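If you are new to this repository, start here. Below is one unmodified record pulled from the training split, so you can see the exact layout before writing a loader.
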Amino acid sequence: MNVGALSTSGQLVGDAILKRSGEVAPNTVVYSSPQLTIALDR
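And here is the target side for that same chain:
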Protein backbone atom coordinates (compact mmCIF):
# COMPACT_ATOMS: atom_id res chain seq x y z
CA MET A 1 0.00 0.00 0.00
CA ASN A 2 1.23 3.49 -0.76
CA VAL A 3 0.07 6.10 1.75
CA GLY A 4 1.28 9.08 -0.23
CA ALA A 5 1.75 11.35 2.79
CA LEU A 6 0.39 11.04 6.32
CA SER A 7 1.01 13.56 9.07
CA THR A 8 -0.36 13.34 12.62
CA SER A 9 0.20 15.73 15.51
CA GLY A 10 -1.29 16.72 18.85
CA GLN A 11 -1.36 15.91 22.54
CA LEU A 12 -2.08 12.19 22.06
CA VAL A 13 1.26 11.76 20.27
CA GLY A 14 3.21 13.81 22.81
CA ASP A 15 2.91 17.05 20.81
CA ALA A 16 5.21 15.51 18.19
CA ILE A 17 4.65 15.55 14.45
CA LEU A 18 4.61 12.03 13.05
CA LYS A 19 5.18 11.72 9.31
CA ARG A 20 4.98 8.66 7.08
CA SER A 21 5.06 8.32 3.32
CA GLY A 22 5.65 5.68 0.68
CA GLU A 23 5.04 1.95 0.77
CA VAL A 24 3.65 0.43 3.96
CA ALA A 25 2.89 -3.23 4.61
CA PRO A 26 -0.73 -4.11 5.57
CA ASN A 27 -1.55 -3.93 9.29
CA THR A 28 1.45 -1.74 10.12
CA VAL A 29 1.47 0.06 13.48
CA VAL A 30 2.92 3.52 12.82
CA TYR A 31 2.58 4.78 16.41
CA SER A 32 1.86 3.16 19.75
CA SER A 33 1.61 4.49 23.30
CA PRO A 34 -0.41 3.51 26.38
CA GLN A 35 -3.14 5.96 25.26
CA LEU A 36 -3.16 5.54 21.47
CA THR A 37 -2.31 3.16 18.64
CA ILE A 38 -2.30 4.26 15.01
CA ALA A 39 -2.34 1.40 12.52
CA LEU A 40 -2.67 1.30 8.74
CA ASP A 41 -4.96 -1.61 7.91
CA ARG A 42 -4.70 -1.82 4.12
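Two things worth knowing about this chain: The beta strands are 2-9, 17-23, 28-32, 37-40. The longest strand covers residues 2-9.
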